[in-house]
Fold these 4 entries.
Entry 1:
Amino acid sequence: PTPTPISVPKSTAPQGAHIVLQTQAGVWSVVQWQDVNGDWHNVDGWRGTVTDGTVEWWVAQKDFGTGPFRWAVYQSAGDSEPVSVSEAFTLPDAVNQRLQITLP
């Protein structure tokens, strides 16, 4: 007899990677991207208060390997100058990869 193929459903969850910031709780963090002139711009959606010392954002496959980006940490959301910034980095380039940055 000829075997009958069985259809196995694929996961409908999109696959991606993560960027992670470890810093002090209670500060405001934002991921920024750098343009060709060297100016930094906030990434819409990748910002918020750090509640437990860690913040993590999901990276879509279409964005793998792009950059440069950096984390900027502010004392509060309305501040104009960051208290610390990370070195520039590119986004992960593989599914389930986690890029972790630590700032004071």
Note: The two ends are 66 Å apart (CA to CA).
Entry 2:
Amino acid sequence: EHNEPTAAFRGRAFAIGSASNDTHGGQRALMALRQVLGVGCGAHVIPLEISVSLAKHAFDDGDRLREMHDSEQAKAVARQLVDVSQRMR
């Protein structure tokens, strides 16, 4: 069982995010990734996620998100991941 390719994912918490140059920010890819991790690998994917659209212009020279909404969403995702991970211990 420990040699299964998905064993490293099973029962662990994951956050997902995407950045894309289109206006949807990779949301369809996130739906597929959520399903693969959750159903296929047995991982716990937290409810919050981040999807950055128009990524070519979304980051400054220091690789920080320009839009406050995106930055706040990234922080919220990180907080939820830490919270869920701690509760799963």
Note: The longest helix spans residues 68-88.
Entry 3:
Amino acid sequence: MNLKRATTLVLCLGATLALTGCTRRLDMEKLKTVLKDGFTAQTGVALKEVSCPESREIKAGDSFDCKATTPGGAMATLKVTQSDDQGNVKWELSASEGVLDLTKLAGTIQAGLKEQTGVEAQVDCGGKFREAEAGKGFDCKATDAGGAAHTVTVTVKDKAGNVDWKLAGGGEGAPAEE
């Protein structure tokens, strides 16, 4: 074997080893920004801070958790899953403390109204999620089958998401727990 051919072979092997030894990593700073913006856009709740693992290899199907906090101190766990081997991800809210699920709350109020008054109504609490700030209140709208709208006042009892609700001009609603 001549020296020129041996040098070429070593260089080729060296390049191959360098490529297989290198791993691509997710841009975690970019991911944090995507999570903040996406969470706010989808839930209506702003995030103050997002923390994720320091580094993650790009690998289709890989899942990990990021922790997020709101300005008011509510906490959320976001499960991030890599959709492919190109760094594309999808995420979902997997747990929360201090965040009210307004769809679930509306269902609880709807069932309570039917139980207490016998009236079936559609309830809208104005979005998907809301930060649970103890002592603060907000209104939901209940519309009965005849189209009449009624106000339901909700008071947040604690950061765990326990609430009391009351139909304006009516009786107290059963406490709802998130």
Note: Residues 1-21 have pLDDT under 50 and may be disordered.
Entry 4:
Amino acid sequence: MSGAPPGWYRDPAGTVDLRWWSGGQWTEHLMPWSAVAPAFWAQSVHAAGNAEERLSAWAVRAVCLYVAVVVSATAVMLVSVPAIVHYVRLTFDNPGASLPAQPVGLQVTSVVEFPVEILVGVVFLMWQYRAATTARILGYPARGSPGLGVGSWFIPVVNLWFPYQALRDLLPPGHGTRPLVLRTWLGFAFTSFAVFVSELTAFASLQVGVAIGIVAILGWILVGTWGYRVVKAIVADHGEAVRRV
């Protein structure tokens, strides 16, 4: 899929015939490679690849840091569940009364977890935009623009599947890591929901809430491992494709 202008496909058999990706299907019209390879396109590929490469290492670190922080915060929350439940009940049962200091679990969440999540989120989305730009110039088919791929994380309902499609489209069709992108996304959605269920269930049954929280921690570790592999695969694919131009 690499080594061709936007929308053009180089035959994997090694021929030089190309066809145009219309956005929904490949056309039957073929054209010699030499007729569609202006120098400015090669320059744009390398410029996009260099911009992505400068953020690639930070994107990998962002994934690892995000998972580490979420796992740590979830573990602290599990340890602090009795205090959190007591604090919340005091809040609702004694409106207007002075309350004790917030439990450690809530303090970690508000002071540490949220700021770090915002920081790593910004870094990751900056990399995603650069990677999507590179993929677009290389001619990888995509359902949306790089900007839409980033913005879809913040659109209600749409953010249930659009971000997955945007990340999947960073890799060419047929790439062996594409199925892992889907597993990572489903794992991310399931684990995020499990953390919420754990916190909610703890008010009714402390033991069940803790058990669900432990499952969530294991899920985050798995999601982090998969996410690391996905980012590394995208970086490797784009780097190799840019070098071949």
Note: Residues 39-79 form the longest helix (41 residues).
